[in-house]
Amino acid sequence: MVKYGYFADETGDSEQAIHWFRRAAGAGNTEAMVKLGALLHKAGKNEEAAQWWRRASAQEIAGAMHNLGILSEEQGNDEEAMIWWQRAAAAGLTDAMMAVAARVGSNEDAVRWRQRAADAGDTQAMLVLGLTLQDAGNVREAEPWLWRAANAESTDAMLWLAVVLHQIGRADEAAHWAELGYQHASLGTRAPEDLVSFGGLLQEAGRVDKAWQLWRRAAQAGSIEAVRRLRLLLLGSEEAQARYRHAAETGDPVAMTALGLLLQFDDHFPEAEQWYRRAADTGATPAMFFLGNLLSATDRGGDAERWWRRAADAGQAESMVNLAVRLHASGRDEEAARIWEQAADSGIPEAMHSLGNLHHQMGNDDDATRWWWRAAQVGNTDAMVMLGLLRHAAGDTQEAARWWRQAVGHGNARGALGLSVLSRAAGSDEEEEHWLRRAADAGLAEAMTLLGKLLQDTGRTGGSRPREWCMG
What residue spans of 187-298 are helical by DSSP H? Predict the structure, then answer.
């Protein structure tokens, strides 16, 4: 039964997968319980998912405990999440050890948990531990962990080791690991986002030539970010620009797209459009995306939608997001939701955030929370702000503060604005002013207005409203 469930899941038939996993789980198969819970959670059936994971946890299945930790955090219960992760960690699950490390209060405790995971053979833990120590200035302690991860065939670790060695002047060793990392990055089929990341590390390690090659591969595979990186490289080299123009003229779609983006940023819109169209006609989805953006910016929304749709139909996730935004703006919410979900399944945080907003507007805050939480886990700060607003509306100021502080830590000024609201409610003018100033310094007009009012109300305006903060 389990094998039938996996087959159905791999072929995209989630209904049949749930059917077979449910039968196997009902017969006591703990692997099926864990997988069934995951499918139910993805479908938004969190209560039933938790029931199956609890049944598996009762039989000491670490993966089920770990999933319950994730679900508990998603539902705002950090204390219960930590209990489940610590149980899973005690059962030897390194993912749970890393989850605890990411959420403990002190850096020393975080290092201790990562070291436990690394000692258990988790390559990612070795890498993160090495980078944590390196960021703290402990290069001598960091290097052995990076070496261990690199020798365990981690491409990320090889390239990070090259970066660290390059930064401390050990050029020959840095070149060795950069070359080895590049060779590993070039093997087989790699996700475009991995190629972009590897290229960035090679650039930091002083190997721009190798970065260029990986970004070209990523662009050929449809990466928008890779084209943006190529444009930045072109900016710094007239020779490279001449080479790319020649390649574009001979029909290279990556060169056409990068050249089009370079021209667009220089406000040469007609020529940029010409290159985008030539590249898009070859089937290059990044060119379709940028062409859609250019058409939209020049008030040709219908044409933009057609190009975004063509790219989205070919699997280009950023085009899905732009298409869904246009559909939502024109009242076609059902189709917008479907396309946002496709983009979210491709890992696009903005799509997850937009789905949260859509469900919130429809009054479905359970689904909104699920999508915002998923977006927040991959770094979307707007989702963090919305989770804070939702918890604040529910009266959970502690959880609201946690999300808003997390947003502020990632540079989102609206998180600071939220914290100012909590400070005002607590009667702390000094703390309210601190958070309003942070938000105002980041350019948030609403914070400037509120700060001006606070200063006026507390008699610190000299009889007039301060020009630097008041907006009208």
Answer: 192-204, 208-220, 224-235, 238-249, 253-265, 269-280, 285-297
List the CATH number of the domain containing 335. 1.25.40.10
Asked if 53 and 68 touch (Cβ cutoff 8 Å), the reply is yes
The rounded distance, in Å, linking the Cα atoms of 144 and 149 is: 9
Write out the two tokens for 113: 């948990």
85 domain-assigned: no
**Would you call 17 helix, strand, or coil by DSSP?**
helix
End-to-end CA distance of the chain: 68
Tokens representing 247? 């390649």
HSE, side-chain direction, 13 A CA sphere, residue 362: 16
Structure tokens at 152: 């365990």
Q: Which residue segment(s) compose the domain that 441 sits in?
A: 380-472
**pLDDT grade, residue 471 (50/70/90)?**
very low
Residue pLDDT, tens place only, 54-69? 999 999 999 999 999 9
Rounded Cα distance between 344 and 415, Å, is 24
Which of residues 343, 378, 413 is at a domain's end? 378
**Residue type (1 letter), 421:** V
Average pLDDT of span 361-367? 90
- Asked if 287 and 260 count as a contact pair (C-beta separation under 8 A), the reply is yes
Amino acid letter, residue 207 = R
Q: Is the pLDDT of residue 105 over 70?
A: no
Residue 363 within a domain: yes
